[in-house]
Amino acid sequence: LVWMAGGLTLAALNPMALANGWNMPEGVTALSRDIYSLHMIIFWICVVIGVIVFGAMFYSLFRYRHSRGAKAATFHEHTSVEVIWTAIPLLILVAMAVPATATLKTMYDASEADLDVMVTGQQWRWRYDYLGEDVAFTSNLGTPREQISGTSEKGENYLLEVDEPLVLPVGQKVRLLLTSDDVIHSWWVPDLAVKQDAVPGFVNENWVRIDEPGIYRGQCAELCGRDHGFMPVVVEAVEPERFEEWMAQRKEAAQQEAMSADREWGLDELMARGEQTYGAVCAACHQPDGSGSPPAFPALAGNQALLEEPDRHISTVIDGVAGSAMPAFRNTLSPVEIAAVVTYERNAWGNDAGDSVQPSE
Ligand code: CUA
């Protein structure tokens, strides 16, 4: 234990090790810097205590060793020593508790936010709803595994990419409301000093006010099943004007997608859209060729009972299958995407080739 503690202390003190990310990051929010300095203060207090305690112990072991004829002293009670070793730790604990309590108070105060974002964990992706803005999307819906590892802006390896980051304005207080559709996940971004569990049936609160524009990366920090290691978080912090532009674009795109559900779609365009959606969403479990991974993920190819009943097929996609691994895609996919993917599956593997399902249905 002593050697381990010594080794860790030396490693932590080495400036190279600090620069190489052995320490926690200072982060890019006032709160993350508070937490960082708290961590450093407590770290140095512990180093000083460790040096004094271990120093006294090794000195005594050496100086009063048996071979030098030292004999153990026998005495009982020493009031002033006992008062000193009670009072000093008490003072140290109070000195650590005061700034720690102040930081904790700030951390738990998510009130008066400028923006509310609902974060929903799903096996194995994150959905973001900008509450009151009618903007919502799933961040890492179908990023192929091969494409998600790479090198970050800071030169770190093995980070995971998403197809759409969570975009947030700098300088504004953003309240994060975290929940889950299935199992417990944890939304973790070290640079923002946020690691918050997303628990089904509960809504947890956290908040962030980012100081510097940039891309901040994290990942799910709660073991949540097969693809836990492929559930990245990417936050892109932008200037408020840029954020407003982005928000306007998102709203426009959402409106167009909603309007396009009302028109008649041709078979070819549904097939193209369906193939894309199937590859991005369904293929992860049901395989690109529809062969599935039974028993958890049934084959779609050859499943005529499903493919020949459009109503059942559509409701399976929209509502999911209770008690199985099939989630509800009601909020994840648009009506056009649902119609397209059902059309695609029917035509790719069913007997009714040439049939299409319209978004308006
Ligand atoms: Cu989600 Cu681990």
TrEMBL record:
Binds a copper A center. InterPro entries: CcO_II, CcO_II-like_C, Copper_CuA, Cupredoxin, Cyt_c-like_dom, Cyt_c-like_dom_sf, Cyt_c_oxidase_su2, Cyt_c_oxidase_su2_TM_dom. Keywords: Copper, Electron transport, Heme, Iron, Membrane, Metal-binding, Oxidoreductase, Respiratory chain, Translocase, Transmembrane, Transmembrane helix, Transport. It catalyses: 4 Fe(II)-[cytochrome c] + O2 + 8 H(+)(in) = 4 Fe(III)-[cytochrome c] + 2 H2O + 4 H(+)(out). The keyword Iron applies. Subunits I and II form the functional core of the enzyme complex. Electrons originating in cytochrome c are transferred via heme a and Cu(A) to the binuclear center formed by heme a3 and Cu(B). Its cofactor is Cu cation. Residues 112-249 form the Cytochrome oxidase subunit II copper A binding domain. NCBIfam families: CoxB (TIGR02866). GO terms for molecular function: copper ion binding; cytochrome-c oxidase activity; heme binding; oxidoreductase activity. One of its GO terms (biological process) is ATP synthesis coupled electron transport. It is a multi-pass membrane protein. The chain crosses the membrane at residues 35-62, 83-102. Its EC number is 7.1.1.9. Residues 16-111 form the Cytochrome oxidase subunit II transmembrane region profile domain. Residues 269-349 form the Cytochrome c domain. Belongs to the cytochrome c oxidase subunit 2 family. It is found in: Cell membrane; Membrane. It is an enzyme of class 7 (translocase). This is Cytochrome c oxidase subunit 2. GO terms for cellular component: plasma membrane. It comes from the Bacteria.
